[in-house]
């Protein structure tokens, strides 16, 4: 997956959390991220995530690795950059679990919500974490000499 694809296309990683939302606070489920993500990101994102029932929704925690195709800032050659990062975000429910009535989303929400069908989409969360972990000046290797002058 290239950096441009990450910026343009949304990733999909849907998990049905209806049963987890019915369980008491502290209940958890674990998933392999390659089984959750769509085929676009399935090959380049790997790792395990844990979904934990919180008082307001679902806490997502995990350790992931990703491989993104970047351009070297010195020699301008394309290369695959491996990265490892931890994710931890809370997805808030938009529906009251006990009554089934819609809730107004809290003002401080970062936009990560569980939809009315009890589907939690990890795609945007993972996309944002990958973009945050991209190197500012990517190098194909530490001793890259840069563009070579042809004589």
Shape: elongated
How many DSSP E strands? 7
H and E order: HEHEHHEEEEEH
Task: Provide the β-strand percentage band.
Answer: 35-45%
Give a brief description.
This protein has 151 residues and is of the alpha+beta class. It has one domain (3-132).
Q: How are the SSEs ordered, and which strands pair?
A:
Blueprint: H1 3-8, E1 14-16, H2 18-22, E2 28-32, H3 33-36, H4 39-42, E3 45-53, E4 57-71, E5 78-93, E6 113-114, E7 119-121, H5 123-132
Parallel strand pairs: 5-6
Antiparallel strand pairs: 1-7, 2-3, 3-4, 4-5
Report what the structure shows.
The strands form 2 sheets. The chain has a 5-stranded mixed beta sheet. A two-stranded antiparallel ribbon has the order 1-7. The chain has one domain (3-132). The mean pLDDT is 83. The protein has 5 helices and 7 strands. The chain has helices spanning 3-8, 18-22, 33-36, 39-42, 123-132, and strands at 14-16, 28-32, 45-53, 57-71, 78-93, 113-114, 119-121. With 151 residues, it is of the alpha+beta class. The chain is elongated, with a radius of gyration of 19 Å. 19% of the residues lie in helices and 35% in strands.
Question: Can you tag this structure with a few keywords?
Answer:
single chain, 151 residues, alpha+beta, five-stranded mixed β-sheet, two-stranded antiparallel ribbon, 7 strands
């Amino acid at each position: 997956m290239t950096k441009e694809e990450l910026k343009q296309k949304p990733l999909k990683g849907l998990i049905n959390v209806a049963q987890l939302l019915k369980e008491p606070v502290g209940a958890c489920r674990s998933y392999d991220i390659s089984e959750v993500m769509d085929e676009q990101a399935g090959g380049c994102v790997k790792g395990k995530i844990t979904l934990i029932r919180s008082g307001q929704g679902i806490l997502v925690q995990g350790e992931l690795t990703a491989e993104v195709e970047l351009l070297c800032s010195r020699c301008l050659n394309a290369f695959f950059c491996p990265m490892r990062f931890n994710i931890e975000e809370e997805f808030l429910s938009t529906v009251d679990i006990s009554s089934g009535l819609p809730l107004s989303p809290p003002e401080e929400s970062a936009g990560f919500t569980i939809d009315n069908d009890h589907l939690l989409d990890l795609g945007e969360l993972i996309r944002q974490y990958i973009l945050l972990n991209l190197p500012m000046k990517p190098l194909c290797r530490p001793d890259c000499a840069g563009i070579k002058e042809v004589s």
